[in-house]
Design brief:
Blueprint lengths: L8 H31 L2 H16 L5 H29 L4
Helix pairs in contact: 2-3
Length: 95
């Protein structure tokens, strides 16, 4: 059984021009969603802190390197917590 899809004449006329733009727009949204989910994954950061601690305990990295990376990871985790908190506060605003 063949499925017939009704298309608006405007969509047919503009498809050669807008089609590629819409594909790029959808692709951009997917990349942005993936990037944001990775950037805001606090669990991933906490796992990296544990891996860093293990490397330090095993003597594979210097004390200076450990503290520098640890501070950076903790700072990033705090920024994520703040961003998530701010986003939650924004969603509670009347709108």
């Amino acid at each position: 059984m063949e499925r017939v899809i009704a298309m608006d004449p405007f969509d047919i006329i503009t498809a050669p021009v807008l089609g590629p733009v819409q594909v790029l727009q959808r692709l951009g949204r997917k990349v942005l969603d993936f990037t944001m989910s990775s950037a805001y994954d606090e669990t991933q950061l906490l796992e990296e802190i544990v891996r860093l601690q293990v490397r330090y305990d095993m003597g594979r990295i210097s004390t200076e390197t450990f503290y520098r990376r640890h501070r950076a990871l903790v700072r990033q985790a705090n920024m994520i917590r703040k961003a998530v908190s701010d986003a939650g506060d924004q969603s509670k605003l009347p709108g």
